[in-house]
Amino acid sequence: MKQDSTKRYEKLRERMGNGDIDRRSFMGLLGAAGLVAGVSGGIMTTLSRQALAAGTELNFEGWGGIVSEALRKHAFDPYEKKTGNKVIDATFGGEEEVLTKLKAAGSIDGHNIIHSSGITWYQRWVQNGYASELNTKNIPNIDNVMEAVLAPFRAITPDHLAAVPYDYGTTGIAYNTKYVSEEEAKKLGADLLLKKDLKGKIGGWSGDWANRAWYGALQSGQNPNNITDWDAVWDKVREHRALILKYWSSGAELMDLLAKEEIYVTEAWSGRVAALQEQGHPIGYLDPENGLAWMETMFVLKGSPMEEAEELLNFMLAPATAIAVAEGQKYPPSLDPTKVDMPDTVKKLPAFDPTGKLDGLVFREPDKWNAVEKEQKKMWNRVMKGA
Amino acid sequence: MAKATAFDPRPWYLLSPALLAIAFLVIAPMCFILVYSFYINVDLGVDEVAFQFGNWQDLLTDSYYHHAIWKTFRMAIIVTVLAALLGYIPAYFIAHTNFRRKWLLLLLLILPFWVSFIIRTMSWIHIMGNQGAINGVLIWLGLTDEPISMMYNEFAVIVGFIHVFLPYMILNVYVSLEGIDRNLEPAARTLGCTPWQAFREVTLPLSLPGLAAGSLLVFVLTAGSYVTPIILGGPNDFLFGNLIYDAVVSELNWPMGATLSFTLLFLLGLVVVIYSRFMGLNQLYKALS
């Protein structure tokens, strides 16, 4: 039955690829197929029940909000219907939190797949011994993934992959167009976050020291991937702190603060800003020169049920699913746009690179950032509290 | 010479389940925390077994931590005093009302406990925020053109704390007031006291144990919090608990987190010991039961 469902799914996908059906119909048919398999009589029902009874549970942890909603709707629900496996999705505040839990528990029980923040965290998970070894033969859709996003991960684990890159985006600057013009935003660039006239109406992200330091480096005229004067970086962070209303700690909080006009300017994730814009809020978005780009992976922890996890990853990387998730979460997929035809909705997303090479985006160099993290993260936690 | 009484082990048999539970759930974790505080954090999430006092030295010599302790105790005192002032009135009303269904009033008091602490805290964003209820009414009445900024400062954090912890104060004071003989105040008045004098000379002193018990609870709960400042506070609003969170979850520095945790435990334990020395814990047990 499992094989039949997979074949049916492949046929459906092929039909969609041929233009026989649109994507919405495809997702509907996929759901209907699962429904039919579940409720039809005879041997199908029996097998379906057996499959459900024998289904494996996969624990997924991600960023919550619209990202989780998109994954649940476009990836997990259809996957569950197709396979009988169950995806239990949870929201984390950050990967540090997950690592703390794993260390405290001494096992990965309840944790299988992490929506991980790209290269620096990939290296950290690997160094902490949590890297699984994916059998990419079970993930044929990985062939459609951009080589530009695979290469940094292969550099860390040359013999295998423990994760598949899934999406990418930028952390630029969001601004309320009622109070800041596009011209002014472009002119000020990273210094927009230091605009004194907006004191009390500026926000900042508390969750990632490197994000703050990246902007501190830009504001102090340094190359973020080659910071030589950390004091200058933290001076700029202190300058920013003196102007802010609040350090926000989640994407939902970011959107709430901007939507309610508690703050007019903050660094922000491109997808969240796109979601706000879609909701009709007057929010502009600026990626300053050398602004921070990132890619996210679906990281499978060592000890997880690998075949089921690989099947889920393959399912998630299928163009139809990945594009639907991208549209939902507003981050471009990791699929190569020169191999997979992207709809306009994806092409219009902030940070989308039609070349598939991502040459225009600047990512963190893990060796540079991870090497100083212990010391500088402590500094950030102190500066954030006024030290 | 008095004859030595024979040792009776039966009470110890009866107490043993409770003692075991306390040993495993309280004493043992505390010991682990204490031992961990002597370890060395080599890198993020990587600790080395050791017996050294580096973390304790940092704690004792770094003004960053002292400032956080001061802020925490200051905030806890402010919240406790305000909760005592605001909580006494409803407690007095519930204790002295002739309303026959007094249980309904007590039910209303504990009703908020059915809603998540986080949700209750976040509700203030929709009350005091720029687009919240208060600003909405003020703008609708024409009293202001622009929203008044009330959120993400110390005031908002205090409001959030009082909202969440006030029922503990009211319940403690109520239990204390309920235990006072209802004839004492009228008796004082027949002896020439005004209503205010009767309250001040009779009722208030007799209800002080409940007030103290409520104050202890509110103080300890406030000082041990860290979520409320994150949700309602600005960059200057943090407590010692936030430093523990940073050390353990953000910096993955468990030895320092253990040192800070044990310090908070010690300081709050000291407060409880001082309270017990002067007030006794009996009133607290009564209210909690």
UniProtKB/TrEMBL annotation, chain A:
It comes from the Bacteria. The keyword Signal applies. Keywords: Periplasm, Signal, Transport. Pfam families: SBP_bac_8 (PF13416). It is found in: Periplasm. Its main location: periplasm. The keyword Plastid does not apply. InterPro entries: SBP (IPR006059), Sperm_putr-bd (IPR001188), TAT_signal (IPR006311), TAT_signal_bac_arc (IPR019546). This is Spermidine/putrescine transport system substrate-binding protein. The lineage of its organism: Bacteria, Pseudomonadati, Pseudomonadota, Alphaproteobacteria, Hyphomicrobiales.
UniProtKB/TrEMBL annotation, chain B:
It holds the Pfam family BPD_transp_1. Residues 69-275 form the ABC transmembrane type-1 domain. Keywords: Cell membrane, Membrane, Transmembrane, Transmembrane helix, Transport. It is found in: Cell membrane. It is a multi-pass membrane protein. The chain crosses the membrane at residues 12-39, 73-93, 105-127, 155-175, 210-232, 252-276. The keyword Amino-acid biosynthesis does not apply. Belongs to the binding-protein-dependent transport system permease family. CysTW subfamily. This is Spermidine/putrescine transport system permease protein. It comes from Rhodobium gokarnense.
